[in-house]
């Protein structure tokens, strides 16, 4: 028993010491490369001279006999060789020592300058991302525009019969109740059966502002009517409500006129047209007009 105990103490002591040893681990690369599978079809034996404990050396030798280690690489570290072959240099691979050999391993040098991986080409296409939103605002607050996404498009990979039916992908519901300030965050994308996407989540942002309302009665006039013709608009006035960012520096209602262009009248159905503003003054977020549609009648000028 004393001999066994002494041997055990001696073994633990020696395995705890630091050694310089050559370690080799088969690595399968995971990397998001546009137009290619995100998992390499081959494994590459990564061999290096390392300094670590005897325990880590034993673990490394055991790991080398098992399945390859899957390591996720930054796409910027992968360089195209030719076709679907890519490589990573020993200098860049130094950032992944712990992922490959495990914690507590200090790299001395790699035994090769580059390591090759094959990423097969996959069918793919780029599609926009559409936000799914459930948003409400506190009184007198509103959005400055739609929810913006970053990135606003993703690459989907899969068989052609799957890709043909995909025109866009959607986010999971972005729930933002009773907003009174701008909102920012990230949201997962809804999975699509049968395909892989280049991103699993996107960032979103929504600019929110306080607003005040200003109502005004405006005349609606025809514009660009050819000589010898007359275009009458019914009704000839409308009520416009401007929503302006708070605080309001000036009344925008005096800066805007509303009109119906003769070219739009010619393209209309039955002479029903929508009035347009001459410009949108600074500070106006949006406006509404009542009525929304005007009846226009063309006649010869007297």
Rg on CA atoms, Å: 33 Å
Overall mean pLDDT stands at: 85
Low-confidence stretches: none
Structural class assignment = alpha+beta
Which range best describes the helical content: under 10%, 10-25%, 25-40%, 40-55%, 55-70% or over 70%? 10-25%
What's the story with the biggest beta sheet? Answer: 6 strands, mixed
Quick structural gist:
By secondary structure, this protein is an alpha+beta fold.
How would you explain this protein's 3D organization?
This protein has 302 residues and is of the alpha+beta class. It has three domains: 14-118, no CATH class; 125-206, YbbR-like domain (RNA Polymerase Alpha Subunit, Chain A, domain 2, Beta Complex), CATH 2.170.120; 210-300, RNA Polymerase Alpha Subunit, Chain A, domain 2, CATH 2.170.120.30. Helices cover 15% and strands 50% of the residues. It has six helices and 25 strands. It has helices spanning 2-16, 54-65, 90-93, 97-101, 160-163, 262-267; strands at residues 18-30, 39-53, 69-72, 79-82, 85-89, 106-110, 114-118, 124-130, 133-137, 141-143, 148-150, 153-158, 169-170, 174-179, 183-188, 195-197, 201-206, 208-223, 229-234, 237-245, 258-261, 272-273, 276-277, 284-290, 294-300. Strands 10, 18, 20, 21, 23 and 24 form a six-stranded mixed β-sheet that branches. Strands 3-1-2-6 form a four-stranded mixed β-sheet. A hairpin with an 8-residue loop joins β1 (18-30) and β2 (39-53). It is elongated, with a radius of gyration of 33 Å. The model has no long low-confidence stretch (mean pLDDT 85).
């Amino acid at each position: 028993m004393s001999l066994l105990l002494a041997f055990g103490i001696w073994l633990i002591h020696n395995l705890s010491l630091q050694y310089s040893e050559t370690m080799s681990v088969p690595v399968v690369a995971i990397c998001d490369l546009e137009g290619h599978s995100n998992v390499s079809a081959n494994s590459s034996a990564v061999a290096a001279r390392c300094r670590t404990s005897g325990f880590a050396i034993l673990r490394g030798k055991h790991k080398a006999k098992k399945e390859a280690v899957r390591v996720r690489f930054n796409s910027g570290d992968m360089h195209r060789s030719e076709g679907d072959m890519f490589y990573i240099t020993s200098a860049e691979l130094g950032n992944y020592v712990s992922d490959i050999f495990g914690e507590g391993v200090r790299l001395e040098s790699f035994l090769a300058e580059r390591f090759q991986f094959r990423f097969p080409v996959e069918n793919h296409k780029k599609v926009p991302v559409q936000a799914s939103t459930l948003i409400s605002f506190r009184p007198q607050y509103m959005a400055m525009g739609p929810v913006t996404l970053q990135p606003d498009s993703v690459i989907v990979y899969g068989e052609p019969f799957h890709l043909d039916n995909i025109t866009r992908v959607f986010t999971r519901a972005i729930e933002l109740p009773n907003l009174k300030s701008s909102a920012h965050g990230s949201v997962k994308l809804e999975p699509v059966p049968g395909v892989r996407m280049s991103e699993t989540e996107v960032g979103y942002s929504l600019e929110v502002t306080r607003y005040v309302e200003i109502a005004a009665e405006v005349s609606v006039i025809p514009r660009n009517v050819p000589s010898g013709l007359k275009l009458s608009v019914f009704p000839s006035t409308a009520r416009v409500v401007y929503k302006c960012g708070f605080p309001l520096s000036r009344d925008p209602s005096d800066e805007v006129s509303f009109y119906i262009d003769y070219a739009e009248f010619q393209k209309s159905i039955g002479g029903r047209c929508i009035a347009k503003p001459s410009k949108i003054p600074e500070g106006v977020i949006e406006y509404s007009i009542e009525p929304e549609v005007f009846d226009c009648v063309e006649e010869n000028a007297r």
